[in-house]
Design goal:
alpha+beta
Length: 92
């Protein structure tokens, strides 16, 4: 007995073609997103994320609980934290 062909049922070839097209589209959009810088914040306080900025050796500069960051008149970022080894870090 033959199985009736239902036009609404996709063939294996159609499934593979659709899957390939969707995967290609995903790759294109992920590259576009990776090139655009991430922006965080809202309103007047929006900032561009710079990957790797401020990454220090955790053995030399451990950071515990950071409770304040300020910018001084020279444009340096000063981080105040609770680690007893270095309570203040200055990024210049």
């Amino acid at each position: 007995m033959e199985t009736p062909h239902c036009p609404a049922t996709p063939t294996r070839r159609q499934i593979l073609a659709t899957g390939g097209a969707l995967a290609g589209f995903g790759l294109l959009t992920s590259k576009t997103r990776a090139q655009a810088p991430a922006v965080i914040g809202q309103g007047d306080y929006r900032y561009e994320v710079v990957k790797g900025w401020g990454e220090l050796d955790p053995e030399k500069f451990p950071v515990a609980n950071c409770h304040e960051m300020v910018e001084d008149s020279k444009g340096r970022i000063i981080l105040f934290q609770t680690n007893v080894k270095n309570n203040v870090l200055i990024y210049d």
